[in-house]
Amino acid sequence: MDLLRFATAGSVDDGKSTLIGRLLYDSKAIFTDQLESVERTSQQRGDEYTDLSLLTDGLRAEREQGITIDVAYRYFATPRRKFIIADTPGHIQYTRNMVTGASTADLAIVLVDARKGMVEQSRRHAFLVSLLRVPHLVLAVNKMDLVDWSQEVFESIEKEFSSFATKLDVPDLTVVPISALHGDNIVSRSPNMPWYEGPSLLHHLEHVHIASDRNLVDVRFPVQYVIRPQSLQRTDYRAYAGQVAGGVLKAGDEVMVLPSGFTTRIASIDTADGPVGEAFAPMSVTIRLEDEIDISRGDMICRPHNQPAVAQDIDAMVCWMAETPLAPGQKLAIKHTTRSARALVKELQYRLDVNSLHRDDTATQLGLNDIGRVRLRTTVPLLADEYRRNRQTGGFILIDESTNRTVGAGMITSAS
Amino acid sequence: MTIHEYQLSQLDYLEAEAVHIFREVAAELERPVLLFSGGKDSIVMLRLAEKAFWPAPMPFPVMHVDTGHNFPEVLEFRDRRVAELGVNLVVASVPDAIERGLVAEEPNGSRNRIQTPVLLEAVEKHRFTALFGGARRDEEKARAKERVFSFRDDFGQWDPKNQRPELWNLYNGRIHLGESIRVFPLSNWTELDVWHYIQREEIAVPSIYYAHDREVFERDGMLFANNEFCRPREGETTFVAKVRYRTVGDASLTAAVRSDADTVEKVIEEIAATRLTERGATRGDDRVSEAAMEDRKKEGYF
């Protein structure tokens, strides 16, 4: 059994909570005591129906105000797959939360209300999915029951969305007509929409092919921790622990260590369960090299003929997540793979309007939840790839050095 | 693992993620400690920590916040496991703290809430900056929103509305003096994942997790063991039933469930079919209010 991580985007009005409630309920991931507690709260509040959003809105303030504050993670499994849902709220802190949820997602579901069709928010959702390079996008056209299961309505939304998606460079788009409330096309194909020939939503989630989404070409192994047992039996053991970020590593492979540029071979790939023949993302392994080279945390093991950029000038799309705006001249801490450095904001090239995709190059700062293209200069070189080539070696976070808060997320567009 | 397809199984994925988290903390934070209760989640954590640094020993001690309300089987298990691994064990004792006047016994006898100041005192005394906890997001609603690296201020408080965004596998472990990070390597695991892992890794767990005969009585629809911490009240009668524990906590308020599952395979079968969450089925403490866990967490609970 493998695992699929997906993010859901849409507001409460689009029926997102109902959809998640439906997936959890139909896969038996909602338990009787959870349901009873939700029913109790709904009754106490005088709701006319059991509000399934209470299943995901776990914090007191959320239940009191009827809003979702933060990304909630939900879990369910079918005999084929385990699923992790990052449920991102529709209103408050929208961009920040969706960027967070999408950063680890293999797939994103964007919901639209069939009666309303594409709205501004749907465009924003689709854009963020593409910005974060989520490999698979599902447009779920919900509330089909309220448009008399109309093929025509569905197809016009599908057409409009698809033409927008081509501008965004979305690798894989699937459009499914559903009724989350009644369960149509959720687990099994709906008898109400015989004209729809595609898979049910759950069938798609269970079968979508994700093995080839990871980068298996460019070997990238950020050194995370040096393992040197201080014991008499293993005086000579020295190895480099980390999580593979790309490519396939094999014992005997010739490798290069950056930034030093030394080359050597992989002696063995160790785990506590014994050596393995190959390692690929996202395996956590320990690599022993044939030669003794000075290597520390933050270094990168790659192949001599396939290296990341060793760069201090970084261009990136940055999503800003703090109240205090980002402006040129600022100094921030940056964390990229296992490497930490300081970064100077050299230039704000433009701010992007996420609704119209218009680039405002007169912008002088990025406010909370703004996205823009930024040039950074780092104190030490980063060992970086373009984000579109590798999400692990192309993504970074920015940290405010005085408050220690995570204030930005960056996706590298070029590094030199 | 199906290497030829370059796709990890869900357990391999979860293991790789947890190992990464352990190493990240050891690399970035100065004085980590692993909270070990002898419960199944902390036992699995211990195994993962062992794997993360192999063949070197895990580079941090373990700490038990001892409520004094223990199941003897669990305490015995704790001591055996710690000896096997050769790690240091720090015990933060609630009975001792009551004697010293740091905390006072609650009217209902539960030590769930008063263990928080005891934990915080130990953190301060040993200057721990990172605490590994076995909490999982599937356990409880407030936990569903918690980060893997959960920031705590100098009072050990959690501010759910003000959490650090967590992207990719990049964790922000930066803190000021006096602050700390709670780290949850099992965030993405479910109860079933934990048991599948126990099965796959052939991990020993205390015997009370498997079905056994025990003298119990019924209270609020739950079965409590008749022991020194928990006696039947008037009108409650004891009887012997075949039970097991789904969670192991304060022995005065952790209930057992009727079960015939005396092997790991049967436990997995039972959990896959159950319609009650482990906390809903067995924890008197979480029934107090809709936000009981959130309130405890804000005060510095795990």
From TrEMBL, chain A:
The keyword ATP-binding applies. One of its GO terms (biological process) is hydrogen sulfide biosynthetic process. InterPro entries: CysN_GTP-bd, CysN_II, CysN_NoDQ_III, G_TR_CS, GTP-eEF1A_C, P-loop_NTPase, Small_GTP-bd, SO4_adenylTrfase_lsu. It comes from the Bacteria. Keywords: ATP-binding, GTP-binding, Nucleotide-binding, Nucleotidyltransferase, Transferase. Residues 1-214 form the Tr-type G domain. Pathway: Sulfur metabolism; hydrogen sulfide biosynthesis; sulfite from sulfate: step 1/3. Its EC number is 2.7.7.4. It catalyses: sulfate + ATP + H(+) = adenosine 5'-phosphosulfate + diphosphate. GTP binds at residues 10-17, 87-91, 142-145. It is an enzyme of class 2 (transferase). GO terms for molecular function: ATP binding; GTP binding; GTPase activity; sulfate adenylyltransferase (ATP) activity. The keyword Iron does not apply. With CysD forms the ATP sulfurylase (ATPS) that catalyzes the adenylation of sulfate producing adenosine 5'-phosphosulfate (APS) and diphosphate, the first enzymatic step in sulfur assimilation pathway. APS synthesis involves the formation of a high-energy phosphoric-sulfuric acid anhydride bond driven by GTP hydrolysis by CysN coupled to ATP hydrolysis by CysD. Heterodimer composed of CysD, the smaller subunit, and CysN. Belongs to the TRAFAC class translation factor GTPase superfamily. Classic translation factor GTPase family. CysN/NodQ subfamily. PANTHER family: TRANSLATION FACTOR. This is Sulfate adenylyltransferase subunit 1. It comes from Jiangella rhizosphaerae.
UniProtKB/TrEMBL annotation, chain B:
InterPro entries: PAPS_reduct_dom, Rossmann-like_a/b/a_fold, SO4_adenylTrfase_ssu, Sulfate_adenylyltrnsfr_sub2. One of its GO terms (biological process) is sulfate assimilation. Pfam families: PAPS_reduct (PF01507). It comes from the Bacteria. Residues 32-255 form the Phosphoadenosine phosphosulphate reductase domain. Keywords: ATP-binding, Nucleotide-binding, Nucleotidyltransferase, Transferase. It is an enzyme of class 2 (transferase). This is Sulfate adenylyltransferase subunit 2. It comes from Jiangella rhizosphaerae. The lineage of its organism: Bacteria, Bacillati, Actinomycetota, Actinomycetes, Jiangellales.
